[in-house]
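Feature request, filed as a ticket because there's no other form

It would be nice if the structure record came with a short human-readable summary line next to the tokens. Right now we just get the raw output. Example of a typical job, pasted below so the devs can see what we mean:
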Amino acid sequence: MAEWLYEAGIGEERAILVESGEIVAARVCWGEPVRAGLVAEARLASKPAGVRRGLARLDDGSEVLVDALPAMVNEGDALRVRIVRPALAERGRAKLALARVTAQEPRPAPTLREQLEEFAARPVRISGPDFADLGWDELIDEAVTGEVAFPGGSLVIAETPAMTLIDVDGHLPPAELALAAVRPIALTVERLDLGGSVGIDFPTVAEKSDRQAVHAAFGKALRDWRGERTAMNGFGFVQLVSRRERPSLVARYAHRGEAGARILLRRAERVSEPGALELIANPATRRAVRPEWEAELARRTGRSIRWREDPTLALTAGFAQAVPA
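Raw output as currently delivered:
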């Protein structure tokens, strides 16, 4: 039976769906205030003539795009909006959060744990074995590198402004490689929380019957995935389209400094030996650790915190150890 497990990290909530001893889905929330589910007061700042989309400014100064605006709304009018997609930081640009006008009462965005209430997610200790034994570190390595290995080949995942791309590579014959990649791709979509438009570049499969076999196998592998899927074209390309309500793990961990800070804090919470905590990290990773996060680490562990900067370390390669107090 599948079960959600939940960790309340410092600067990061994280959850995994476990089935038969395997992580089959994962979610991460970094606590940005303007994210899906937030209902807030706003004022329409601009609205180009002849369109139903405009720019609104929330009371805290955040700017959001508002879609499907009522025809009678004009620039300067007060609105109440619900965020349906958070702001997305992409290579070379940033997409504003997307909102729609609503009559719902103002409320903050739900936490990740609140989102999982209907699934009765079980909280676990960060210092406990649950996430580690199930392969959390390996999952994060996939998110950081964008590489997922499977028998006979590998997947390479890249975020672009238009879509997330998954490239299938390997040494097997094309039709065999495509079939071998089906389940790893379906798992990766859920494990790395890939939403929105996802393009999959399978090897070119010449025979129509082989393409149909891949299509049928992919449909079974996707299980309860909600969205639309195209058939494989003659060049081996398949597209998945679903609602994008949050950044994927790949998008999250592409921000190496921010990601490295959260990875380091989790590692520090897991140090079991007695003594003060020494955090060894790249200077940029240290700068990404907010003072309130460091204070929370000291409170949770009951230890004093020391730092040692090492510019040769990768941003996500920081580690922690116990040293004499």
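Something like this underneath would help us a lot:
The two ends are 45 Å apart (CA to CA).
Residues 38 and 109 are 4 Å apart (CA to CA).
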